């Protein structure tokens, strides 16, 4: 027995946003994207429902109005490709962008209580979006709430890049 704990297989070890070199929303959104990737790689619970073990390399993209999860093994071999229609996310992404813009503006000009109120709304939308994402992935990909929250942030980053690149 080596004493070294077994490496977890229910996790993402690398993430790539396809099209991430496109336009960025703003410095605050770019910072959020970087933090979401860092935090997701530091700690996540992610597994394919079909039982194929990880660790996984995840390529996220938006193609033909679908959020695509291209899941690969560490050697880069495809394991599963899942597309989710973006329609169910439209309202919440739009609302999230609006609240985030208000939050970033409030940081510069508003009182602490106003900033806290906006941030509560932002966190509430983020929680709602992460639960929607988990529900839409059910039976395909299993992930915990913190992982789903970070994946939603990355969906927003992809969506913003796609909107501004047009």
Care to describe what's here?
With 166 residues, the chain is α+β, with helices and mostly antiparallel strands. The protein has one domain. 50% of the residues lie in helices and 21% in strands. The strands form 2 sheets. The chain has a 4-stranded mixed beta sheet with strand order 1-3-4-5. A hairpin with a 5-residue loop joins strand 4 (66-72) and strand 5 (78-85). Helix 1 (27-42) runs antiparallel to helix 4, helix 2 runs antiparallel to helix 3 and helix 3 packs across helix 4. Residues 20-24 and 162-166 have low confidence and may be disordered.
What characteristics describe this protein?
alpha+beta, 50% helix, 6 strands, disordered C terminus, two-stranded antiparallel sheet, 166 residues, four-stranded mixed beta sheet
Order of helices and strands: EHEEEEHHEH
What portion of residues belong to β-strands? 15-25%
Report the radius of gyration as a whole number of Å.
17 Å
The 3D shape can be described as elongated
Total strands: the figure is: 6
User: What's the average pLDDT?
Assistant: 86
Helical proportion, percent range: 40-55%
- In which order are the strands of the major sheet placed? 1-3-4-5
Biggest sheet statistics: 4 strands, mixed
The structural class is alpha+beta
Termini gap: 57 Å
- Poorly predicted segments: 20-24, 162-166
| Total domains | 1
Number of distinct helices: 4
How are the secondary structure elements laid out?
Blueprint: E1 12-17, H1 27-42, E2 46-48, E3 56-63, E4 66-72, E5 78-85, H2 90-109, H3 112-137, E6 141-143, H4 145-165
Parallel strand pairs: 1-3
Antiparallel strand pairs: 2-6, 3-4, 4-5
Helix pairs in contact: 1-4, 2-3, 3-4
């Amino acid at each position: 027995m080596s004493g070294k704990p077994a490496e977890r297989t229910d996790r993402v070890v690398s993430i790539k946003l396809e099209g991430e070199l496109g336009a960025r929303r703003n410095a605050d959104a770019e910072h959020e994207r970087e933090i979401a990737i860092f935090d997701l790689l530091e700690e996540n619970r992610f597994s394919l429902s079909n039982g194929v073990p990880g660790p996984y390399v995840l390529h996220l993209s938006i193609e033909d109005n679908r959020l695509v999860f291209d899941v690969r093994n560490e050697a880069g071999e495809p394991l599963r490709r899942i597309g989710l229609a973006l329609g169910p996310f439209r309202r919440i992404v739009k609302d999230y962008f609006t609240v985030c813009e208000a939050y970033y503006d409030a940081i510069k000009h508003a009182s602490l209580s106003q900033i806290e109120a906006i941030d509560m709304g932002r966190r509430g939308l983020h929680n709602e979006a992460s639960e929607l994402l988990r529900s839409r992935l059910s039976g395909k990909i299993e992930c915990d709430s913190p992982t789903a929250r970070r994946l939603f942030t990355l969906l927003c980053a992809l969506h913003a890049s796609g909107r501004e690149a047009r």
